[in-house]
Design a protein that fits this description.
The protein is mainly beta. The chain has 1 helix and 9 strands; from the N terminus they run H-E-E-E-E-E-E-E-E-E. The chain has a 5-stranded mixed β-sheet with strand order 2-9-8-4-6, with no helix packed on it. Strands 1-3-7-5 form a 4-stranded antiparallel β-sheet, with no helix packed on it.
């Protein structure tokens, strides 16, 4: 009888355990796309993108790249322990007029979904 109860308990808990967070998890703070606000035309735009490792293993930032030559992005941390926060320093050359959208791509060591595209909007 005791073994039947243990078996039933295992059967009931197994699905919940399979959904438990394992591994690193990259999460950007705030909503996307990130609105950096209104900026003066022909002036460099600088913006800090805050992110966090919400997983239960070490998160490694493999690469950070801008999608065009008019902007750049650099992570201040390559490795984050669980619950640690980091910053990606974004810079746009400021050439443009009106609403502008730029993107950066962050690659991580996550087991699934290890490539993240972050969009930033601004008004010049």
């Amino acid at each position: 009888m005791k073994s039947i109860k243990l078996l039933l308990l295992f059967i009931l808990l197994a699905p919940a355990l399979s959904y438990a967070q394992t591994g690193p998890k990259f999460e950007v703070e705030g909503e996307e796309p990130i609105n950096t606000g209104v900026h003066l035309r022909n002036k460099e735009v600088h913006y800090d993108i805050k992110f966090k490792n919400t997983g239960d293993e070490v998160l490694k930032i493999v690469s950070v790249s801008a999608t065009c030559g008019c902007s750049s992005a650099l992570s201040t941390s390559d490795t984050l322990k669980p619950s640690e926060e980091g910053v990606i320093k974004f810079t746009f050359n400021g050439i443009g007029m009106g609403p502008i959208t730029k993107s950066i791509v962050v690659s991580t060591n996550e087991k699934e979904n290890n490539s993240h595209t972050i969009s930033l909007t601004m008004n010049m």
